[in-house]
Design a protein that fits this description.
Helix content is 79%, strand content 2%. It has 337 residues and is an all-alpha fold. It has a two-stranded antiparallel sheet.
């Protein structure tokens, strides 16, 4: 039997403690509770005090029954502790009653079985003059095997029908168990496949994670280098700005005109590039007139020369065409012959 020892602290927290050597009587706590109820004067508090007193008496009887001659452990008799112990007492007594009923039922069945065994033994002795002492060693061994088989198969008697029914039941259970085992094997294989896939996936994820971490470290080092480079360039740019400002101030102090500064020169360069783009078509158009003679008569002479040159080239082209035509005709004649 399990002995439960409870101790409730002042903040109503429940903790398990070893059984102390001394006991605290429960009556003063109940009396104090009753006196508190009387001081309050309300009927509700009186009823609560009476209920608490009844529970304490029930708990005291239960603890005396459990511990018998041993000292009862001390506990603080507040509402929470009393309710817990009262519930334990009720559960323990209900379980004891159930166990007592079960023991009585088992004893009654044992008595009935013993009486039936005596009856059957007497019947065998009177009608067949058989008794366990009159059997041979072989018959005794057969009888033991029969009894053990009936007990293993859990039959109600040793008849063939009972044995066949029990064997059929066990065969059905065997088939059901084998079927269940096969199903469990299939399920196990399926789970093993899933587990293998999960492990492979985990391995791949770990490898990808390692690659990602290495790539991240490389990128972080690159980012750090770029950050340092940008910081260096920023500092250098600030230094150049300071130097340019100082140089401009120095040039301005020496009387330099603003039109000679870098900004003014860049502005003039942009204007010059724009003007060059605007004058480019005019220059191209003008270039076609630069080859002409300066006077009209010379221009006419130039034109006549060009016409004569054109006529000469046309005559040469006609002669070349005629010669090619003759060559083609001769070639065709040669092929036909």
């Amino acid at each position: 039997m399990i002995f439960l020892l409870f101790s409730v602290c002042s903040n109503n927290s429940l903790s398990l403690l070893p059984p102390p050597r001394t006991t605290i009587p429960m009556r003063p706590c109940g009396a104090a509770a009753a006196r508190g109820g009387r001081r309050d004067g309300g009927g509700r508090f009186k009823a609560a005090g009476a209920d608490m007193e009844e529970k304490l008496q029930r708990i005291a009887l239960w603890l005396k029954k459990i511990y018998k001659n041993q000292p009862i452990p001390a506990f603080e008799a507040n509402k929470r502790t009393v309710d817990i112990l009262y519930d334990l007492a009720e559960r323990n007594e209900a379980r004891d009653r159930d166990v007592s009923l079960l023991i009585e039922d088992m004893m009654q069945k044992a008595t009935e079985y013993e009486a039936e065994a005596k009856y059957l033994q007497g019947l065998l002795g009177e009608s067949l003059a058989l008794s366990p002492s009159s059997l041979s060693s072989k018959g005794t061994s057969y009888l033991d095997v029969l009894v053990n088989s009936a007990m293993i198969l859990e039959t109600k008697d040793t008849s063939l029908v009972s044995f066949f029914c029990a064997i059929n039941d066990m065969t059905s259970e065997l088939y059901a168990t084998e079927l269940k085992n096969r199903q469990m094997e299939l399920e196990l294989k399926d789970r093993m496949k899933k587990l293998t896939g999960a492990l492979m996936l985990e391995k791949q994820i770990r490898e990808d994670l390692e690659k990602t971490e290495k790539y991240l470290e490389l990128e972080m080092s690159k980012a750090e280098y770029q950050s340092q480079k940008i910081k260096f360039l920023t500092d250098k740019s600030k230094d150049f700005k300071v130097r340019i400002k100082a140089a401009e101030d120095q040039l301005t102090a020496t009387g330099l005109h603003k039109s000679l500064t870098h900004e003014s020169l860049m502005s003039l360069s942009e204007e010059l590039a724009q003007l060059q783009q605007e004058t480019a078509p005019v220059k191209k158009k003008l270039q076609s007139y630069l080859d002409l003679p300066p006077s009209l008569s010379l221009a006419k002479v130039k034109i006549e020369e060009l016409k004569q040159e054109l006529n000469t080239m046309e005559a040469q082209f006609s002669k070349h065409i005629d010669s090619l035509t003759l060559e083609m005709l001769e070639t065709r004649k040669f092929q036909f012959t």
